């Protein structure tokens, strides 16, 4: 059902579906003239700055029960896409089971923005500061896509190969694997980190954001290392070449020097008004290798 808007000028028609099928059907019907809206904080900024036009139709996701709640089920922390960033950060489930994500959310915008902004909106922007942490945690997405619920990795969806990401996709839930033996991001012998360079008091892209997880076995060898980098307008992605250089090896100064160069070569950083791509590459490589340097010196 559409509802009236109490604003000046030509305003969008707002729809309030109760189920994913209905919301997706509206988006498919109206196409590029419609957008999904949950917290709407980034969209509001874009409209005010006139970097994005107002749509003809706004599809509110606020009343879809399937997109709410934070629970543990079948070995995953399952987070509804319309959960606010503040609710995610304050969740006992996420603070105990996925502390890396809770930490990352604390770096996103100002408290007032986090009160309205949603995790799904941060992911949907493709460049949100939660995305590197979620990639490092090997997160999966539950989507409504092509008349059906589909589950795929966040990495696959971001890369979009073979039509994995479609313009009318509706993100329902975010699924993060958890380890029952210790309840956190990683099991015994594991590590996790998240670092960011750049102010984020509003929805402006960070200069560099990195995250990583992994394990060290009893003989000192690294395994299951996952590294991610993002910042600016670049879609965050896994640094698979650096991961390969670390997995199965013992940390050393020589290894870190090699990894530093690999990150700078692989990371497809975006340039911008406040920092060029070379700076972002160097900053990302420095942030990541500094974390491994700390691990080496333990």
Structure report:
This protein is of the alpha+beta class and 298 residues long. The chain has 3 domains: 2-60, Uridine Diphospho-n-acetylenolpyruvylglucosamine Reductase, domain 2; 65-177, Uridine Diphospho-n-acetylenolpyruvylglucosamine Reductase, domain 3, CATH 3.30.465; 190-296, 2-Layer Sandwich (Enolase-like, domain 1), CATH 3.30.390.50. Helix content is 34%, strand content 25%. The chain has 12 helices and 13 strands. The protein has helices at residues 20-30, 41-48, 85-90, 92-97, 99-105, 111-114, 119-124, 130-136, 154-159, 240-246, 253-266, 277-296; strands at 2-3, 13-15, 34-37, 57-60, 70-73, 76-80, 140-145, 148-153, 170-177, 190-197, 208-216, 222-231, 234-238. Helix 10 packs antiparallel against helix 11 (253-266) and helix 11 (253-266) runs antiparallel to helix 12. Residues 1-9 have low confidence and may be disordered.
